[in-house]
Amino acid sequence: MNISKESVEHSSLKPRQVRPLIGFDAREYDGLRRLGINLDGPQGGMVRRMASAMAMAMDSVQATVTTATITTPVQFLQNWLPGFVKVITAARKIDELVGISTIGSWEDEQIVQGILELTGRAVPYGDYTSMPESSWNINYNARTVVRFEEGLRVGQLESARASRIRMDSATGKREAAALALEIIRNSIGFIGFNSGNGNTYGFLNDPGLPNYTTVATGASGSTLWSRKTYLEITADIRTMIANLRNQSQDQIDPETVNMTLAVSTDAVDYLSVVSDFGNSVRDWMTKTYPKIRVVSAPELNLASGGLNVAYLYAEDINDLSTDDGRTFIQVVPTKFQVLGVAKDAKFYTEDYSNATAGVMCKRPWAVVRVNGI
């Protein structure tokens, strides 16, 4: 007796009848059973809730065919801080040291300062002796004007793409051009410009400047302020003041004349060295010589044969001259000038320029220079 029982066929789909369960109500569990989907197990409740919210497909599970990646790209997890941090450049101190005078025009070739000397010598009077005669002698110091330029070019695509990062390409390039012109002007203000037969000098190498003298050696065996005591540093400064008074034949009184102590950046902070009583060199200067201001500049580092230097000079003097009475003058006919703008089909260009005659020392006797600090 054959007791085998024929299997029940719940459903049968031909190949062309197989399709995703689109529009099928997943809550019709009996219908799902006929397709071989049983939701009556221990996790059936959870599965049924999920099934009611999604379409069901009968594709078999397969390996990943796309590149493995993360769920959320990092671009969607970034928070951008406002603005841009600009790369710094060295401080430009020539204007603070000697000022700036806008004299002349961009196209000028030279800046000329007249030097007037009054001559004559009085002698004892006599009725029939020869009369001595006074006179005058004049010389001219000329400085050559040098011109520099810096331009920019901005393309249409470049400008459009830069705007996507909140950057105005044209404005950034204009700022860069202005900065480049200021940097070269500051550099010429300190060291001049060698253009063959030109005559452009700076704060450090004007031909009229007096020679350097080396400061005294301290108890440590060094001339450096970094190794000197309060008393030794104040003695160096006092010596500079005394020398300035002596070489000016008392025309410069440190108690009444505005003066500048220009110190290398490497040495200026040693003016904070204190005495046994707690007061610093700077405190001593403020109390004893209130007319002296202190200005540091990086160009004074290693400026004399690898030695740091310092200058002490009167800023301006009332000596009956008919000029402005200044010891140093920086002549800048043109600080910034637009040369021209040109528009092309895909880009535009701009060109800028400046003109400077460097720095002239008009009163060398009003300057003392030391090195070794």
Please name the defining characteristics of this protein.
373 residues, 20% helix, alpha+beta, hypothetical protein PF0899 fold, three-stranded antiparallel sheet, single chain, 7 helices, five-stranded mixed sheet
Task: Walk me through what this model shows.
Helices cover 20% and strands 22% of the residues. It is α+β, with helices and mostly antiparallel strands and 373 residues long. It has one domain: hypothetical protein PF0899 fold, CATH 3.30.2320.10. The strands form four sheets. The chain has a five-stranded mixed β-sheet. It has a three-stranded antiparallel β-sheet with strand order 3-10-9. Strand 5 (259-264), helix 7 and strand 6 form a beta-alpha-beta unit. The longest helix is centred in the middle third of the chain and has 23 residues, at 169-191. The model has no long low-confidence stretch (mean pLDDT 90).
Our measurement of the CA-to-CA distance between the termini, rounded to an integer number of angstroms, reads 123 Å
Following the backbone from N to C, one meets helices and strands in this order, namely HHHEEEHHEHEHEEEEEEE
Helix content: 10-25%
Oligomer: single chain
Cα shape: elongated
Count of DSSP strands? 12
Looking at the overall shape, the CATH architecture is: 2-Layer Sandwich
Structural class: alpha+beta
- Count of runs of 4 or more consecutive helical residues: 7
